[in-house]
Design brief:
30 strands, alpha/beta, eight-stranded mixed sheet, 21% strand, Rossmann fold
């Protein structure tokens, strides 16, 4: 079965609404529908419910300070430490021997950290960071794959009040340097390598190359030895230190968690925007942690005794919020996996669900589409009965994929939460609550209690049910970004310009997604409305890719758009004009692909590079991207009358269909 079509039972194909079972509802953390009203009537005090999930040194004075909107402050006056909340308090509560992290390497090697183990290693690494000169508020860059040392380093940073900036390991050396430069980060924690589909990858080479591009002094680099004997030949030089040796040197050391103000920065996370420069999204300690703990409790229904697995990479916000901070704040067991879902076989994830008796599983639609394509025999071969709840995130899920997930992974027993949110929102914003809501495949659901999300037209007026518009968030929430690092102006112009009325002190957050709403208030997300692509659930800026292509010798101009892709959702289509004297060739195509991989990483690799003598442009000289998208998708071409060069469209179409 190639597309999974025949694997969906006819009965399910027709069904549009699904209810959680009584059994699920009875045990759910949140099952009283009055919660929506309660939060609305009691806003913003309702958010105390989230703050109460944390342990504080000093209690906060105010829930929300909105005097300087949209620079909102939450839980002002309070002090706390995220590492204490995610680690120590569970040990103090007598749960030190509960598993915090169940890690599995691609080759099947495993490591288990109890909360006590985690506490020990977080302390030792925090002591090492201090000794290396890391002070409170220094940004520490973590360029690491999925090894347990990554969450340990995050928590060690949090312990000493040093914000971390995790750079996804799949990003290139250039991307690392850009992010370290932008954050003025003088410390790097990285790794010698990791395994992908059986091969050992040399990560250190990229890290070293990236360090060369850092335009300020780097005080220290720490390197985790993941590959052991499979490792590549890189001697540690100068200020480079081996993680294992540092831990040995600090064996048994403890570091008191630093009391951080509620609004102190917990971390930076770079994400793609409309322009070429990635945006440093700033999250703070109390609001973010309270929000991820609360949504892990209410949406993921996590209990301390659960084993929970989010198959994302910690290098993205999903991993920050729902592998590390949310689940660990609740004292849950979180699973981490190093490799790909199809190694050594396509049942790897289901084998792990069975082995660890995973209760709650959270993944992305792109993965579900791949599972469907591979066929249901892979999950069918395993006992997945431990699962209680399923979740998805990152892109729209079509009803067919939703139902396949429901039937083949959840055995029609597990509710599914389709959670819409963003790097900037810190945590989930629109989704059903699994113990309350009717599920409608394809629609994320209503905004969470306390979240004022609306679907509006270009004027900001709410649209009628069924009509497409844009999603906005009209009230602040604790997990929201506070600003873009060192760039308040860009923060204002990126998110608050479109719909706010500063004179009236009315601030409306614009996430740049299209959406529609139905008569029950259920929101269906239609996708980005800016120049950002969503490739396999990863957010990539077209401008970033274009500037990488234009950086290749011989390229005069480039336009990048997203084309539909069965598994990835969207794929990168690059239309390229060469300079005079350069010819279209396989070599040139490879150079372009290499240029993108070097500037960003393999995830941004163009699916197709189409050489063309011209790009379709309007009379004012703007590239008509809509047409390029239609061409990529081999759709019928819309109106071309406003083009100054309409004849080029046919030529490009012919090329795309030949490739
Ligand atoms: O377009 C939306 C899409 O992913 C974007 C955010 O990307 P990022 O900041 O990388 O965070 C991804 C993980 C939270 C959004 O603007 N998106 C995210 N979740 C969904 C979604 N689109 C539809 N349905 C979702 N559940």
């Amino acid at each position: 079965m190639s597309d999974g079509d025949g694997e969906l039972e006819a009965r399910l194909v027709e069904q549009e609404e699904f209810e959680p079972s009584d059994e699920f509802v009875e045990q759910a953390n949140v099952s009283d529908p009055d919660i929506y009203e309660e939060f609305e009537e009691n806003w913003p005090q309702c958010w105390e419910r989230a703050a109460e999930m944390l342990d504080w040194y000093d209690d906060y004075d105010t829930v929300l300070d909105d005097s300087e909107g949209p620079f909102y402050e939450w839980f002002q006056g309070g002090t706390l430490n995220a590492s204490y909340n995610c680690v120590d308090r569970h040990v103090e509560d007598g749960n030190g021997d509960r598993t915090a992290i169940n890690w599995e390497g691609e080759h099947g090697d495993t490591r288990t950290y109890t909360y006590e183990d985690l506490q020990r290693e977080v302390n030792e690494f925090a002591a090492a960071l201090r000794e290396l000169g890391v002070e409170e508020d220094d940004v520490v860059t973590l360029y690491m794959p999925m090894v347990p040392e990554l969450p340990i380093a995050m928590l060690a940073c949090a312990r000493i009040g040093a914000p971390h900036s995790v750079v996804f390991a799949g990003f290139s050396a250039d991307a690392l340097a850009t992010r370290m430069n932008s954050a003025d980060s003088r410390f790097l924690v990285t790794c010698d390598g990791y395994y992908r589909r059986g091969d050992a990858l040399d990560h250190m080479e990229k890290a070293n190359e990236g360090l060369e591009g850092v335009d300020h002094g780097v005080d220290a680099t720490v390197v985790v030895d993941r590959l052991g004997e499979d490792g590549f030949d890189h001697d540690l030089k100068g200020n480079q230190h081996d993680w294992g040796e540092l831990i040995d040197d600090h064996s048994g050391d403890t570091v008191d968690p630093v009391e951080r103000d509620a609004e102190d920065m917990l971390f930076l996370m770079y994400t793609s925007g409309t322009t070429g420069e990635p945006k440093g999204v700033k999250h703070t300690t109390a609001g973010y942690l309270a929000y991820t703990a609360w949504t892990s409790h209410s949406v993921l229904d996590l209990k301390p005794e659960d084993t929970y697995w989010c198959s994302a990479d910690i290098g993205w916000i999903t991993g920050h919020s729902y592998i590390v901070y949310g689940p660990l704040a609740l004292g849950t067991t979180t699973v981490m996996y190093e490799g790909t879902p199809d190694f050594p076989e396509r049942d790897r994830l289901w084998e792990m669900v069975e082995e660890y008796s995973v209760d709650v599983f959270y993944t992305a639609p792109t993965a579900i589409r791949a599972f469907m394509k591979w066929g249901s025999q892979f999950p069918d071969d395993h006992d997945l009965s431990s699962l209680r709840l399923l979740g998805t995130v990152g892109e729209p899920i079509n009803p067919r994929a939703w139902k396949w997930y429901y039937q083949h992974i959840g055995d029609e027993e597990c509710p599914i939460v389709d959670t819409w949110w963003q790097t900037e929102t810190g945590g989930m914003m629109v989704t059903t609550l699994p113990g309350i809501g009717t599920m409608k495949p394809g629609s994320a659901g209503p905004p969470l209690p306390g979240i004022d999300a609306r679907i509006v037209d270009t004027e900001g007026e709410q649209v009628e049910a069924g009509r497409a518009g844009y999603i906005t968030v009209n009230k602040p929430w604790p997990g929201m970004l506070r600003t873009l690092y060192d760039n308040d102006d860009r923060f204002l112009s990126e998110y608050w310009q479109e719909y706010s009325d500063p004179d009236a002190d009315e601030w409306v957050y614009f996430p740049e997604d299209g959406a529609k709403i139905d008569e029950d208030g259920y929101i269906t997300i239609l996708g980005r409305v800016d120049d950002v692509l969503n490739v396999s659930g990863h957010r990539l800026g077209t401008m970033e890719i274009e500037s990488a292509i234009v950086g290749v010798e011989g390229v005069a101009e480039a336009a990048v758009v997203g084309g539909d892709h069965e598994v990835k959702g969207e794929a990168v289509y690059a239309y390229v004009i060469l300079e005079d004297g350069y010819e279209e060739s396989e070599e040139m195509r490879e150079k372009i692909i290499e240029g993108v991989e070097d500037a960003i990483g393999p995830i941004a690799r163009p699916e197709q590079v189409v050489f063309t003598p011209e790009l379709p442009k309007t009379r004012s000289g703007k590239i008509m991207r809509r047409l390029l998208e239609e061409i990529a998708n081999e759709e019928e071409i819309g109106d071309t009358t406003t083009l100054r060069n309409p004849e080029i469209v046919k030529d490009i179409q012919t090329k795309v269909s030949q490739d």
